Amino acid sequence: MPDGGYVWWYLDGISADGRYGVTLIAFVGSVFSPYYAAARRKGAGAAPAERHVAINLALYSLDGRGPGRWCMTERGAGAHRRRADFFQVGPSGLRWDGRTVVAEIEEWAVPLPRRVRGRITLTPKAINAEAFALDPGGRHHWRPIGPIADIALDFSAPQLSWRGEGYLDSNWGTEPLERRFLRWDWSRAALPDGAGAAILYDPTLADGAGEPLALHIDAAGRISRRPAPPRRALGKCFWGVERETLADEGAAPRLLKTLEDSPFYTRSLIETRLFGQDLTAMHESLDLTRFDKRWVQTLLPFRMPRRA
Q1: Per residue, what are the HEC states of 96-108?
Q2: Is 90 exceeded by the pLDDT of residue 43?
Q3: Contact 212, 200 (CB under 8 A)
Q4: Which pTM value belongs to this model?
């Protein structure tokens, strides 16, 4: 992986009863790290991606009655091991047995130091091998590996156990995100009755251009690209980050719950209409112009401690 580059593996899930949610991201070259950004500013040779690795876990209570946790401790190259079927950062890791991703988590939450310990298993119902370039030069790619999946979460700290529907993807690139993009909006939703999934990826490049992706995935995992529907505003978060999504003509997407609210990034649960169906979607908005500002990066160590 080149200096300044990155790869991450992302999974999320929502419990069958709609009460809980989870996201997990395993990074090599932690793209939202203030430490990695500072290393890149030192010039060539100062920012090997392997010196900035992390596993980010977020547990959500969607009805406000359960436990929530946030963990993201960045570590150095000595704490990191990986193979094609194995990824370890400090005490936490992921493995792939050919059918299922198993994540073993042993972390401390921030800002309140509370133990987070448990297991996540995610089993895709079909594996997608197609990757999509997010920029014309092919420097940044995204692959929805398991757009339809079963997920199970069993934690002892906090005490939490549930089953539901999940999702798995990966992004990688050869340069920092903020060099190529101004922002993006992304969302994914499971279709009713196990019929598949809908995924939207709407990047805006540094020159203002950008080609949105609107993907329909059927129950067998086959992906078809659909015409991108119109953009709809979802409203700003507390920090002022704009949130938008693509939705069917005449639809009025609605914000159900803000899960993450930061100066450059939001994660939300939304209600929308896409491909003629009413859906509940996991949604994110990323403002890379904001992320690139020093005042924003000064705030980030409070949520992202580092143990080199």
Answers
A1: ECCCCEEEEEEEE
A2: no
A3: yes
A4: 0.96
